[in-house]
Amino acid sequence: MLQKTVLSAASVLALAAGTASAQTITIATVNNGDMIRMQGLTNHFTDETGIEVEWVTLEENVLRQRVTQDIATNGGQFDIMTIGMYETPIWAAQDWLVPLDDLPDSYDADDILPAMRAGLSHDGTLYAAPFYGESSMVMYRTDLMEEAGLEMPDAPTWSFIAEAAEAMTDRDNEIYGICLRGKAGWGENMAFITTVANSFGARWFNEDWEPQLDTPEWQEAVTFYNDLIQNYGPPGASTNGFNENLSLFQQGKCGMWIDATVAASFVTNPDESTVADSVGFALAPNREGIDKRANWLWAWALAIPAGTAQEDAAKQFINWATSKEYLALVAETEGWANVPPGSRTSLYENPTYLEAAPFAKMTLESIRAADPTEPTVDPVPYVGIQYVAIPEWAGIGTTAGQEFSAMVAGQQTPEEALDRAQTLVAEEMEAAGY
Amino acid sequence: MARAVTTQRKVTNTVIAWGVGLLIFFPILWTILTSFKTEAQAISDPPLFLFFDWTLENYAIVQERSDYMRFLWNSVIIAGGSTVLGLVVAVPAAWSMAFVPSRRTKDVLLWMLSTKMLPAVGVLYPIYLIFIRLGLLDTRGGLVIVIMLINLPIIVWMLYTYFREIPGEILEAARMDGAGLREEILYVLTPMAVPGIASTLLLNFILAWNEAFWTLNLTAATSAPLTAFIASYSSPEGLFYAKLSAASTMAIAPILVLGWFSQKQLVRGLTFGAVK
């Protein structure tokens, strides 16, 4: 009896294995509009190449943990991973990724925006191909600005932002001058606060890897951020991240919102946004006399883990999904406004796109103004604008983020938050052997 | 003898019970309601309760994007398989602890429970490496084993408490009549403990169904259950609350229905032995 069961179980397993013989690649990815669109268009790739594609879609933080664990243990679950600009140079340095230096000429790697290429390379070699890229910028309500009698310049300063935020705030009608990230996390509030710090002339570490949170520049930057959010921000800002602010802005409750350029297509979409026809865009602000602006640089990119058995098929997919032809395919099936932004120069030279996407010009200028290799006024030993590309950053950023989130919640002053963050970061860096 | 209960008191108790019940159920109700809204209605402030244009578009989108049946089938196999396997191991274990206890039985019980005290993430890497070595990553079989092991202490403990309520003399009598160990467990003990076993089964099925740490970490494309299906709709950059709610509703619907139909059995089993 037992033998029979074992035998039939074995034959079921054999059958299951037999059906999986056609070439199939597995791709781990995040859930966002552009990625979902790509999943919908995958059948074009399968028709062209005969390669089947399986998708594993996960929430961003889960994805990050899941792919890190798989690549560090050589688990081989994925043939392509969607990773960010933060992971790429770190993983490439560990030899965890397959270099993408042999893509065909037709791919035209030189067409990739230089800032994106720089952020996704290690020692000059590209290790991940950008699927879409973003910077950050000011999104503002043109109608409220007009009411306030102000005009937003293309490149505002922080003092202008503060002035405009004050003029637009109307608490009785639940309109807040400025919505900013306050939710703790290295990819949440710390991404924004780090860019503010950069634009005030601050830096995370000096050339000897000593934390610099006790400098006057940090003090000024964090105090300024805190004042903005306390005086002109919505209540409960300490728990607001990208999605919460997006929701507030779409309901017409924010005068300005400084965040990812990718939000532009959401806030101008009349199906979702009540203020779609009155949104303007400007470069992220700087401080008078400092030529670094508070804009970040980020890309979601496709990379191949070293050790995959299907490297060729994976490369074929990347070649397809990040090509100019793919952009044209999206334009044809979903319209130009839905083409993944921020990856290729040629897209921004296309007049049809520039017309269909009112935010395209400012997105490109913001991306161009960002240089991950020189993010700060003073020299730093690290790469990355709104993050520090070292493995310890995720921990450090999140610890510091909690202090600043507590500050926004009114539990501590900027001095106390900086003081504690400095101590915690110094401890962590020492433990890590810097 | 039952105490006399005034009508007023009955009414008060009923109202309080309903109030607490609704409060606990509210998040689920809200998820279900949100799943019928458009994305714009889902975030509208003030929130819309019942008076909005009900739409099925989120369900249509979710259906189109994901292979729901595959996730559902994986959930059924993983939750069902681990529960049944757990019972097969736990019934004999609980039998021995309840009816032939040794000096160390209490320690063994406590030790088993102590395995629940370590956070799961503490053993993630060892288990991941073992799974790679054994080729169990992204297989339903591997998950059945892991989830069975995780729930095993609870199964043994629950069965142990039920079995203790059964007088040992009945088993002795069966033995006197010539029943072997197998007959004793299968034909005498098990039928008497059916309410207990049934509620253990149900509770563990629900726990296994909702398990979201191992099922997310040890699966990829082929064996991912409904927990991964929900996770695939969560998005930090973009508002997809209505779609996420639709996916969640589809994921909890089967277990909600199961719970509804078996609530009598569940309550009976959980209070089994409480009243003599």
Automatic annotation (TrEMBL), chain A:
Compartments, as annotated in UniProt: Periplasm
Keyword Secreted: no
InterPro entries: Bact_solute-bd_prot1, SBP
Alphabetical UniProt keywords: Signal
Gene3D superfamilies per the UniProt record, alphabetical: Periplasmic binding protein-like II
GO cellular component: periplasmic space
Major localisation: periplasm
Signal peptide span: 1-22
Protein family (similarity comment): Belongs to the bacterial solute-binding protein 1 family.
Protein name: Sugar ABC transporter substrate-binding protein
Source species of the chain: Psychromarinibacter sediminicola
TrEMBL record, chain B:
GO annotation, cellular component aspect: plasma membrane
Stretches that traverse the bilayer: 15-33, 71-96, 108-131, 143-163, 185-207, 240-261
One Pfam family this sequence matches: BPD_transp_1
Protein topology in the membrane: Multi-pass membrane protein
Cited InterPro entries: BP-dep_ABC_trans_perm, MetI-like, MetI-like_sf
Subcellular location(s) per record: Cell membrane
Gene Ontology terms describing biological process: transmembrane transport
UniProt cross-references to PANTHER family, sorted A to Z: INNER MEMBRANE ABC TRANSPORTER PERMEASE PROTEIN YCJP, MALTOSE TRANSPORT SYSTEM PERMEASE-RELATED
The name this protein goes by in its record: Carbohydrate ABC transporter permease
Species in which this protein is naturally found: Psychromarinibacter sediminicola
Stated family: Belongs to the binding-protein-dependent transport system permease family.
Domain ABC transmembrane type-1 positions: 72-262
Source organism, top-level taxon: Bacteria
Keyword list, A-Z: Cell membrane, Membrane, Transmembrane, Transmembrane helix, Transport
